[in-house]
Amino acid sequence: MNEVMIGILGLVIVLILFMTGIELAFAMALIGFLGFSYLVSMKAGMNILAKDFFDVFANYGFTVIPLFVLMGQIAFNAGIAKRLYDSAYRFVGHIPGGLAM
């Protein structure tokens, strides 16, 4: 098969996977990986998969998200969040829309 037919087949398979309930991002990633592996080689596909996987998790922006979630959970369980909310309400709660500011 040539590249155009593989692209059309990939588009059809992505639509089928999407209609079966698979998330669009996962369907596109799977079809992209399989199409690249078919057109180039399986070794090149595995190399690019490993490189992309590492690049996502080595990105600083993505590594701080779990730490912020952990910090929020600790603040919630310790009662810090409720005390902080209550003190902010005491300062600006009398103003209409005070906590929203």
Can you describe this structure in just a few lines?
Helix content is 81%, strand content 0%.
Structural commentary:
- The chain has 101 residues and is an all-alpha fold.
- It has 2 domains: 1-45, no CATH class; 59-101, no CATH class.
- It is 81% helix and 0% strand.
- The chain has 5 helices and no strands.
- α1 (3-19) runs antiparallel to α2 and α2 packs across α3 (42-58).
Features:
mainly alpha; 2 domains; single chain; 101 residues
Number of domains: 2
Q: What would the average pLDDT be, to the nearest integer?
A: 87
Helix content: over 70%
**What structural class do you assign from the helix and strand content?**
mainly alpha
SSE topology sketch:
Elements: H1 3-19, H2 24-39, H3 42-58, H4 60-78, H5 80-92
Helix pairs in contact: 1-2, 2-3
